[in-house]
UniProtKB/TrEMBL annotation:
The lineage of its organism: Bacteria, Bacillati, Bacillota, Tissierellia, Tissierellales. InterPro entries: CinA (IPR050101), CinA-like_C (IPR036653), CinA_C (IPR008136), CinA_KH (IPR041424), Competence-induced_CinA (IPR008135), MoaB/Mog-like_dom_sf (IPR036425), MoaB/Mog_dom (IPR001453). This is Putative competence-damage inducible protein. Belongs to the CinA family. The gene is cinA. It comes from the Bacteria.
Length: 412
């Protein structure tokens, strides 16, 4: 099944708002095994909208029109679709009564143009909007379907969640499974999967690069659900064997959430000495429920004075090697560990830019310090100041996630 999405609104094209609806709907359709083949944003223009609807409906099995259902003159999605389908707009008494009641409860006068929202295309299935005023609709057109959803995300997203699955189901069974890979690039993951030759006429596998991991999405489509379940299970087992510890989740769980869970299960306490990351690492972990069980403290030691007075980094180390060095990273982590609060101490120091102070912008040193072992990693990241800080934080979380059972290099 092929789907097309048209988002309507001049405000999208002039950059006043971001079109999050297409992304949200595309993700939901992919989970149902529906392939989005076309996406388009168009301004509030009756003639152009009619042309694009007429053109796209020829190319897809199901068409989604998002936005343009409100009370103002520039809201014309229903009117354009009715024109294309050669149908009339009729007043729906139920929707009109609901609209009047809503304004009465709000103790606000209902202007005449609001009545427009209670008009629907004749013969359509009404999708009651429990989150706003304009209803959605589904119109059968030959062997095709057209969905109309209101544009505001606070209405659009719950309506998609509530109505989509039950109104788009095919005879085919669809199973969607996501796996998450950390510490390997998308190109490497994709090449490995292709060499395994796991796809067939019922199974498709795609990879998607996120900022912190690579997602593998398995989509199984067919008529025999039991057989599809068996195939997906076999593929998941093969991918676990192939990627080992790098395959850290089957549920699109974020690395920071899995890390907190693992640290909790192992009863390990962690602390951070943050220079380049400036508290971002502790912020990421504390956003996860249960972090209080494993995060003991975070020291934002941005200046050399704080590195020396709080963490015990020697002045001679700072003078000889600089703040951005493996020696300083080691002493930061060791000083933090010696406070006696944690089992694992992690220190970050580097150049976030845009102007360098000691080393080339993007140079980073990270030290992971345990009771008897430590390891120091040197990295080089490209990007803006914020992007470099994000990459350092995600690198630390990924490294810990994949190496909690490893203890680095033995001291001495």
């Amino acid at each position: 099944m092929k789907a097309g999405i048209i988002t309507i609104g001049t405000e999208i094209l002039i950059g006043s708002i971001l079109d999050t609806n297409s992304k949200y709907l595309s993700e939901k359709l992919s989970e149902l095994g529906v392939h989005v083949s076309h996406q388009l944003s168009i301004r509030d223009d009756f003639k152009e909208l009619s042309i694009e609807i007429r053109d796209m409906i020829k190319k897809v099995d199901v068409l989604f029109l998002c936005g343009g259902l409100g009370p103002t003159e520039d809201d014309m999605t229903k009117e354009a679709l009715a024109d294309v389908l050669n149908k009339n707009l009729v007043l729906d008494d139920v929707q009109y009564t609901k609209l009047v009641d809503r304004f009465n409860k709000l103790k606000r006068p209902m202007t005449s143009n609001n009545k427009k929202q209670a008009y629907v295309i004749e013969g359509s299935k009404i999708l009651d909007n429990k989150w706003g005023t304009a209803p959605g609709e589904i119109i059968e057109y030959g062997n095709k379907k057209v969905f109309l959803f209101p544009g505001p995300p606070k209405e659009f997203e719950p309506m998609v969640d509530y109505y989509l699955k039950d109104n788009i189901a095919e005879n085919n069974e669809i199973i969607v499974k996501s796996l998450n890979i950390a510490g390997l690039g998308e190109s490497s993951v994709e090449e490995t999967i292709r060499h395994l030759k796991l796809e067939n006429n019922e199974i498709s596998i795609n990879t998607f690069a996120h900022f912190y991991d690579t997602e593998i999405k398995i989509i199984a489509e067919g008529t025999d659900k039991e057989h599809l379940v068996y195939q997906v299970r076999e593929i998941v087992e093969k991918l676990h064997i192939t990627f080992g510890e790098h395959l850290y989740s089957e549920n699109n769980t974020k690395p920071k959430e899995v890390l907190v869970k693992k640290l909790t299960e192992k009863n390990l306490k962690i602390s951070f000495a943050e220079s380049i990351t400036g508290g971002l690492l502790s912020s990421k972990l504390t956003s996860v429920n249960g972090a209080s069980k494993i995060l003991k403290n975070s020291v934002v030691s941005y200046s050399n004075e704080s590195k020396h007075k709080i963490l015990g980094v020697s002045n001679s180390t700072l003078e000889e090697f600089g703040a951005v060095s493996e020696q300083t990273a080691l002493e930061m982590a060791k000083g933090l560990y010696n406070l006696g609060l944690c089992d694992i101490a992690v220190a970050t120091t580097g150049e976030a830019g845009p102007i360098s102070s000691e080393k080339e912008v993007g140079t980073v040193f990270i030290c992971y310090y345990y009771k008897d072992f430590y390891e120091i990693k040197e990295h080089f990241f490209k990007g803006s100041r914020n992007e470099i800080q994000e990459r350092v934080s995600d690198t630390v979380i990924t490294h810990l996630l994949l190496n909690l059972d490893k203890k680095g290099e033995k001291n001495g």
